[in-house]
Amino acid sequence: MTQEAHPLTPRTPATTDRLDDDDYPAYTMGRAAEMIGTTPGFLRAIGEARLITPLRSAGGHRRYSRYQLRVAARARELVDAGTPIEAACRIVILEDQLEEALRLNEELRKPPTA
C-alpha cells in the first residue's frame, strides 16, 4: 500500500525551489495568455520578434516563466498604448538592458568590503 502525502506536508526543497524560481517554465501558453490578459497569438508574435523564447515541454508545448510573463505584460502595455509590436519588443529589450547596466554601475560604485 502506498502512502499519499498529506496536503499540508512540507514540500521537498526541489519543489519549493522551482516554485520560487522566476525562470522556471511553469505556465502553459493558454494559462500565460490568461494571466496577462492577452491571446496566445500575442505570445507567439513576441516570440517571433525574439522578445521571449519559451521553453518546450517534452510534448513540444510552449512553457513560460514568471519572468517571461512580466516581460510579455510590459510589451502588452506598450502595444495597448499604440506602439507597434516590433517597436514594443525593442523598447522592452532596451529597458531591460538599461536596468542591468544601472545595476552593474551601482555595484561598481560600492566601496570594496574588507
Automatic annotation (TrEMBL):
Gene3D superfamilies: 1.10.1660.10. Residues 1-22 are annotated as: Disordered. It comes from the Bacteria. SMART domains: HTH_MERR. PROSITE patterns: HTH_MERR_2. Residues 26-94 form the HTH merR-type domain. It comes from Streptomyces chryseus. InterPro entries: DNA-bd_dom_put_sf, MerR-type_HTH_dom. SUPFAM superfamilies: Putative DNA-binding domain (SSF46955). This is MerR family transcriptional regulator.
